[in-house]
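Exercise: predict the fold of this chain.
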Amino acid sequence: MEKQTITLADQELASRLASRKHFLKDVDQLINWKRINKVLDKVEIRRTSVAGRDAFSAEVMFRIMLIQSWYKLSDYQMEEQLYYNNIFLWFCHLSLENPVPDHSTISRWRSRFSNQGIYQKLLQEINHQLSKYNIKVTEGVIVDATLVESHARPRKKEIIETEPVGDEEIPEHPSFQTTELRVEESKDTDARWLKKGKKSIYGYKRHTVVDKDHGLVQAIAVTPANVYDGHMLTPLVEPLKLPGGTEVLADKGYCSRENEDALQEKNLVSKIMQKKKKNQEMSAETRAFNHAISQQRYRVERSFGGLKKHFGWGRSIYMGLQKTTDYLYMGAIAFNLKRSLKILRA
């Protein structure tokens, strides 16, 4: 149960933590929680009676989800941690003398967030708050996509038929050995196959915009893996409402007349790498243009590397397009906050 009054045990805990430095204490100071609560107000449980157990607030559950993203904790692991991890308990505004949310409560609140489309709004709000610290898009953005493996891969099953034993043939049975390979349907029906190089991947594609200066995630769109990158540039960039003159960097997968026209219409500077024209040599000017862009794209690769290593962006822990999208959004929010603290300390 969420803290209603400060007990002696809570005062003792706060006293012990007062002189200690910790990442969670820095994050707590970084975020304007009043503004976060305005976003979360849509998912708050409205009580019609004072009877019964009080519900946990949406803010508490968002704090729990942040910890899960930073420390790679399942709902069961998070429930266990809240029983004995004092800094987690303090960050989540939970009391030592009251029950904590169990794994099923955490799961239900995650579904509430998803049903109300809260994750995208939370990312936008966090980025807006970070802009107050001058951590924002100033020169340009980088658009790129990468694959996310599905949590449920299709399973292969070998069915082997052996030849009959003995010399005489058995009617309606083959007298030879055959091996048949069958592929069972995946439980994750939203995912799709895509072959990248020599490796075939079953899953999704996350199309991402990061800012050119800091590599923070500005926008995400998640699709089945077989969706073409170039079709997603406008849906990603348009909602950001970038100021005129902002550069948009992208690799050759986004090179099309349609994308060039869309950027020009919004007064954005196209820095999309150019493809070689059929049966023509690429000019030295075009090669230099492409090289200059590729030299700046390391920031998105660095961000993707951190997101895959620390925030699970390499493979989803959930099944289905919506749950995978929500999972990647929470990873982006947690990544942006952690990365921003490093920037501010530098």
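Check your answer against the key: Residues 158-170 have pLDDT under 50 and may be disordered.
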